[in-house]
TrEMBL record:
Record keywords: Signal
Entry keyword annotation includes Signal: yes
Name listed for the protein in its UniProt record: Hypotheticial protein
Secretion signal span: 1-21
Superkingdom of origin: Eukaryota
Length: 114
């Protein structure tokens, strides 16, 4: 009877330790996701300028084009606008890429950190 009681207590303690470890990892994941969101929220403003430039440029290009339905014209407009907007927003585009990389790395380090 004593061994049975000891075994039951051991099982209960093992389950409690496992459960608390699992909760800790869920809390850790949640914390790391919040850190990622905070980091990632720093770059969307920059991206808006690039997107606006791309939309505006593409609209102007299509309006000034003689054949709007020609797929090659649309493609040429897109390529020209992409180049134009990238050069106008070069620092922004590079910053955006760098920020995504940094945020992703920070998230992975956060998960590994105990």
């Amino acid at each position: 009877m004593f061994f049975l009681a000891t075994f039951v207590i051991f099982v209960i303690l093992t389950v409690e330790v496992h459960t608390s470890a699992k909760q800790l990892s869920n809390e850790k994941i949640s914390s790391c996701l919040k850190q990622y969101d905070t980091c990632a929220n720093e770059y969307p403003t920059c991206l808006k300028y690039y997107d606006r430039c791309l939309i505006s440029c593409s609209d102007d290009c299509r309006k000034n084009s003689s054949i709007v339905t020609d797929s090659s014209t649309v493609t040429e407009c897109y390529i020209a606008c992409k180049d134009k907007c990238r050069s106008e927003n070069k620092e922004c585009v590079e910053y955006n890429r760098a920020c995504k990389d940094v945020c992703s790395k920070e998230y992975h380090y956060c998960l590994k950190d105990k």
